[in-house]
Amino acid sequence: MELGMIGLGRMGANMAERLIQGGHRVVGYDRSTEAIARTVATGVAGADSLAALIEQLPPPRAIWLMVPAGAPVDQTIESLLAQLRPDDVIIDGGNSNYKDTLRRAALVSAKGLHYVDVGTSGGVWGLKEGYSLMVGGEDSIIGRLRPIFETLAPAPDRGWGHVGPSGAGHFVKMVHNGIEYGLMQAYAEGFSIMEHKSEFSLDLEQVAQIWRYSSVVRSWLLDLIANALGENPDLSGIAPYVADSGEGRWTAFEAIDLDVPAPVITLALLERLRSRDPESFGDKLLAAMRQQFGGHAVKHEDKP
């Protein structure tokens, strides 16, 4: 099968390479000429413009977007709509908000084209291990694209599925990432407790390695924790600043909209926000209040 790939960053390039290894032809485009050159070296047919990419694909075309969520997706779709023909398919494999996906699907459908949303998980390991794919869209179009999904997944019958209509793929991926926040926070807190129990001098990598096998808490995240602690036991050089890319927020907002309690996911998100405040005014005010009502001592900042 032939596929266009727009966005040849690390994940897009890895996906293109996995497809080529699976016998598919991929035409790639990126605003970076260096990114195009890197993927051409892996077997991708390069295109220096969207028009050139479209020209190299036989109709009905399938074009996979791996561009940042938000305005870049809308801008790319707008450019494609002016050049694609009825029955062509646009696939958004990025982390778009499912509400944006619903809007885009309606826009694309009105032009006689098809829109498929694919929540994609697997990160930098996907090229080797395969990707987890949560797919939303029309039944007939998903059937047409099935060989692509079977190649990108860990196995043709494992790790991917058509989860519902347009928007469902990105919705499921949003919740997936919200769960990921909670899991990561629980691991981080547990290992922090052990790190603070100094009298036991625990080898945290050893603990992670023990838990990786037969333990109730074994997981791929735990495998990655073991890797990280093996490479850098005290995590030196890593700032205690945790970014978020949006999906945890969207999951918390959705839980509120649906009246569904989700305290673990929400608190995990709040902990990430807390990590970004090296001079927490709120914490200073808490200390000041304790001093005011109880005369408790206040720890003063070291002055240069």
How does this model look, in words?
This protein is α/β, with parallel strands linked by helices. Helices cover 51% and strands 12% of the residues. It has helices at 10-21, 33-40, 50-55, 71-81, 98-110, 126-129, 139-152, 168-196, 204-211, 220-231, 247-257, 263-274, 281-294; strands at residues 2-6, 25-29, 45-46, 62-65, 89-92, 114-121, 132-136, 160-164. Strands 3-2-1-4-5-6-7-8 form an eight-stranded mixed β-sheet, sandwiched between helices. Helix 2 links the parallel strand 2 and strand 3. The protein is elongated. The mean pLDDT is 95.
- The computed structural class is alpha/beta
Mean residue pLDDT? 95
For the sheet with most strands, the description reads:
8 strands, mixed
- Work out the strand percent: 5-15%
Order of neighbouring strands in the sheet with most strands: 3-2-1-4-5-6-7-8
Q: What is the count of DSSP helices, taking H or I runs of 4+ residues?
A: 13
Tally the beta strands.
8
The residue fraction in helices comes out at: 40-55%
Unreliable stretches: none
Overall outline: elongated
Radius of gyration over C-alpha positions, nearest whole angstrom: 23 Å
Straight-line distance between termini:
65 Å
- Encode the helix/strand succession as letters: EHEHEHEHEHEHEHEHHHHHH
